[in-house]
């Protein structure tokens, strides 16, 4: 029987998955499953929202990383550990398929935490992906253009300022006051 390289399946193309694949020796059959077909350098993401840096400057297409990998643009949705299979759903949601593995690397990151701050999930724009940055950039431009229109005052009908921007990061717990500040 001829020797076949071990099948390595990596879930996720973020810092964890990307670095692992980059530094791996070519003695594996590598398959990557991720809803993102590029690596995103998140520390520079905020700069793209205001146009200081262009979107394409902070990404690296995953297929450029090496030419011996299979990439599937999909989410992992179910893990069958006993049979070493992962069920995946295409990023567009139309197809489901399974990928077998010998070794599995799960590097799917984490969900954004709103720290139970009321209204954040409904009203805020999150900044995790390139599309989030595009949406934020459009919103900022719209706000400035709207404020520039004739007949517009800096306060809108509900009394809030049109050009007020609130930015939030991880809340900090103030143990002396026993409260959270954003
Ligand atoms: C705006 C911003 C700025 C940041 N700045 C810094 C900084 O300056 N310094 C610093 O140390 N950290 C910074 N971070 C945090 C840093 O980006 C994260 O700690 C890091 O990305 C975590 O790496 P990861 O590989 O665990 O997850 P991620 O990089 O989030 O990657 C997760 C990957 O898994 C994929 N995925 C998700 N679900 C599935 C699924 N079901 N199946 C398959 N794939 C899936 C995602 O598409 C993504 O490709 C910043 C984060 C943000 C959002």
Would you spell out the secondary-structure blueprint of this structure?
Layout: E1 7-11, H1 15-23, E2 29-34, E3 38-40, H2 45-49, E4 59-61, H3 62-65, E5 69-80, E6 85-90, E7 96-100, E8 103-106, H4 120-123, H5 130-147, E9 172-174, E10 179-181
Parallel strand pairs: 1-2, 1-8, 2-5
Antiparallel strand pairs: 3-4, 5-6, 6-7, 9-10
The chain binds flavin-adenine dinucleotide.
Flavin-adenine dinucleotide binds next to α1, β2, α2 and β5.
Task: Summarize the structure in short.
This protein is 22% helix and 27% strand. It has 182 residues and is an alpha/beta fold. The strands form 3 sheets. The protein has a 6-stranded mixed β-sheet, with no helix packed on it.
How many beta-strand elements? 10
Mean pLDDT: 89
Q: Could you give me the name of the CATH homologous superfamily of the largest domain?
A: FAD/NAD(P)-binding domain
- As a whole number of angstroms, the C-alpha radius of gyration is 22 Å
| Proportion of strand residues | 25-35%
Fold and architecture overview:
The chain is an alpha/beta fold and 182 residues long. It folds into two domains: 7-106, FAD/NAD(P)-binding domain (3-Layer(bba) Sandwich); 120-174, no CATH class. It is 22% helix and 27% strand. It has helices at residues 15-23, 45-49, 62-65, 120-123, 130-147, and strands spanning 7-11, 29-34, 38-40, 59-61, 69-80, 85-90, 96-100, 103-106, 172-174, 179-181. The strands form three sheets. A six-stranded mixed beta sheet has the order 7-6-5-2-1-8, with no helix packed on it. Helix 1 (15-23) links the parallel strand 1 (7-11) and strand 2 (29-34). It is elongated and about 80 Å long. The model has no long low-confidence stretch (mean pLDDT 89). Bound molecules: flavin-adenine dinucleotide. Flavin-adenine dinucleotide (FAD) binds next to helix 1, strand 2, helix 2 and strand 5.
């Amino acid at each position: 029987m001829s020797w076949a390289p071990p099948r390595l399946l990596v879930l996720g193309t973020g810092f964890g998955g990307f670095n692992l694949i980059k530094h791996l020796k070519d003695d594996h059959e590598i398959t990557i499953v991720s809803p993102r077909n590029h690596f995103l350098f998140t520390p520079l993401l905020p700069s793209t929202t205001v146009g200081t840096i262009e979107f394409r400057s902070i990404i690296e297409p995953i297929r450029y990383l090496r030419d011996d990998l299979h990439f599937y643009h999909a989410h992992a949705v179910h893990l069958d550990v006993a049979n070493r299979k992962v069920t995946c759903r295409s990023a567009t949601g139309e197809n489901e398929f399974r990928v077998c593995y010998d070794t599995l690397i799960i590097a799917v990151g984490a969900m954004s935490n709103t720290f139970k701050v009321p209204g954040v999930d409904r009203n805020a724009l999150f900044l995790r992906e390139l599309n989030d940055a595009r949406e934020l950039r459009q919103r900022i431009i719209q706000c400035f253009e709207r404020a520039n229109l004739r007949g517009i005052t800096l306060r809108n009908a509900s009394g809030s300022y049109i050009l007020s921007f609130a930015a939030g990061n991880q809340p900090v717990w103030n143990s002396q006051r026993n409260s959270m500040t954003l």
